[in-house]
C-alpha cells in the first residue's frame, strides 16, 4: 500500500468511472442539500430525534460529495504529483466518510427500533431527555471515529516528503483500511439486522398497522433500504479486505478495485438519505416513523415551490432591470413554463 504509483495515462474505463462518479456526486449533493434545507426550515421535522439525525446524515453526505467533486477529481484527471501532506488534506474526508455515514445510518435504524418498541415513552420524551438521547447517539460514534483522522495524519507525517499521484490509499496504511472496512461492515450488518427485526415485528403482528396496504408499503421501504446496504455499502469493505490481504496484486489492480469500491460507495451516498424520505408510510401506533413518513414529501414539495418562486422572482427582477417596463410587462403575460439561458427567458 505504500509503493509509488506509476504514472500511467488515464484509461477510458477510468475516465468513464470518474465521469459517472461526478454525476452521482452531483445528484447526491443536490438531493441531500435539499433534504437538509427542508429539515432545517421545518420546525416539525427538526424537532424529532430522527429528524436531527437525518439532518446530520444529509450534511455529512453533502460534505463527502463535495470532497469528491472538486479538488480530488482535478488531481486525478491531471495526474499532477503533489506532496503527500497536501493529498491528505485534499482527499482524507472521502475515506473517512465511508466509515462515518454507515454509523449514522445505524443510529437512525436504532432510533426507529426504539420508537417502535417504546412508542409512548419515545413520543412523551421531554426536551432535556431528547437532548441527552441525541447527544449520546452522536457522541458515542464521534469519539470512536476521532481516532481515524489522527492516525491518517500521523501516517502522512511519517512520509511527509513523498510525492504522489493523489489517491486515498497513499495516506492510509493497511491497518487503517482494515479498521475502516470493519466499521463499515459491522455498521451495515447492524442496519440489516435491525430492519429485519422491524419486518418480523410487523409480520407477526407485534406492530399493528392500519391495513394491508400500509404493510406492503412498509415492506417495500424496508426492502429498498436493505438493498442499498447489500448492493452498495457491503461490497466496499469486502473489496478493501481483498485488496489489503492479497499482496500479489499489482498497484494498478489495487487502485482499479478501490475505484470500483468508491464508485459503489458514491452510489450508496447518493441514494442513502434521499430514499429515507422518498419511501412512504402511514401512521404506526400513533407515531409516524419520520424517515418513512409522507411528512417529508409534503415539506420537500413546499421547499421546492419556495425555491422555484425565488428563482422566478429573481429572474423577473433581472429582466425588469435589463429590459425596462416593456420587458416586465411581456414577462407577466407569459403563461407557459420558462427556462433561463444566459439571463434571458424563453418559453419552454
Automatic annotation (TrEMBL):
Keywords: Membrane, Transmembrane, Transmembrane helix. It comes from the Eukaryota. PROSITE patterns: G_PROTEIN_RECEP_F1_2 (PS50262). One of its GO terms (cellular component) is membrane. GO terms for molecular function: G protein-coupled receptor activity. Residues 31-277 form the G-protein coupled receptors family 1 profile domain. The chain crosses the membrane at residues 12-40, 52-75, 99-120, 132-150, 177-202, 222-245. Coiled coil: none annotated. Gene3D superfamilies: Rhodopsin 7-helix transmembrane proteins. Signal peptide: none annotated. It is found in: Membrane. Pfam families: 7TM_GPCR_Srsx. PANTHER family: G-PROTEIN COUPLED RECEPTORS FAMILY 1 PROFILE DOMAIN-CONTAINING PROTEIN-RELATED. This is G-protein coupled receptors family 1 profile domain-containing protein. It comes from Meloidogyne enterolobii.
Amino acid at each position: 500500500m505504500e509503493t509509488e504509483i506509476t504514472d500511467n495515462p488515464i484509461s477510458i474505463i477510468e475516465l468513464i468511472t470518474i465521469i459517472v462518479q461526478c454525476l452521482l456526486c452531483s445528484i447526491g449533493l443536490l438531493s441531500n442539500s435539499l433534504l437538509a434545507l427542508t429539515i432545517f426550515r421545518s420546525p416539525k421535522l427538526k424537532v424529532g430525534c430522527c429528524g436531527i439525525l437525518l439532518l446530520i446524515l444529509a450534511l455529512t453526505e453533502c460534505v463527502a460529495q463535495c470532497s469528491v467533486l472538486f479538488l480530488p477529481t482535478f488531481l486525478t484527471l491531471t495526474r499532477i504529483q503533489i506532496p503527500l501532506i497536501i493529498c491528505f488534506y485534499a482527499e482524507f474526508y472521502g475515506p473517512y466518510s465511508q466509515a462515518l455515514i454507515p454509523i449514522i445510518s445505524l443510529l437512525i435504524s436504532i432510533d426507529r427500533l426504539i420508537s417502535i418498541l417504546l412508542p409512548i415513552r419515545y413520543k412523551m420524551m421531554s426536551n432535556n431527555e431528547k437532548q441527552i438521547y441525541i447527544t449520546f447517539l452522536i457522541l458515542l460514534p464521534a469519539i470512536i471515529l476521532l481516532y481515524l483522522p489522527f492516525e491518517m495524519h500521523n501516517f502522512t507525517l511519517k512520509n511527509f516528503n513523498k510525492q504522489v499521484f493523489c489517491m486515498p490509499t497513499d495516506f492510509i496504511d493497511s491497518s487503517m483500511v482494515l479498521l475502516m472496512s470493519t466499521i463499515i461492515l459491522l455498521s451495515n450488518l447492524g442496519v440489516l439486522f435491525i430492519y429485519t427485526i422491524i419486518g418480523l415485528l410487523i409480520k407477526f403482528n407485534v406492530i399493528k398497522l392500519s391495513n394491508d396496504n400500509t404493510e406492503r408499503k412498509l415492506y417495500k421501504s424496508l426492502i429498498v433500504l436493505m438493498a442499498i446496504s447489500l448492493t452498495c455499502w457491503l461490497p466496499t469493505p469486502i473489496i478493501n479486505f481483498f485488496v489489503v490481504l492479497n499482496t500479489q496484486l499489482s498497484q494498478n489492480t489495487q487502485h482499479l478495485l478501490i475505484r470500483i469500491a468508491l464508485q459503489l460507495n458514491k452510489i450508496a451516498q447518493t441514494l442513502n438519505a434521499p430514499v429515507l424520505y422518498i419511501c412512504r408510510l402511514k401512521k404506526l401506533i400513533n407515531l409516524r416513523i419520520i424517515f418513512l413518513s409522507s411528512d417529508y414529501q409534503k415539506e420537500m414539495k413546499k421547499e421546492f415551490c419556495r425555491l422555484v418562486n425565488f428563482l422566478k422572482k429573481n429572474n423577473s427582477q433581472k429582466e425588469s432591470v435589463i429590459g425596462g417596463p416593456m420587458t416586465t410587462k411581456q414577462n407577466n403575460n407569459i403563461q407557459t413554463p420558462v427556462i433561463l439561458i444566459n439571463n434571458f427567458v424563453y418559453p419552454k
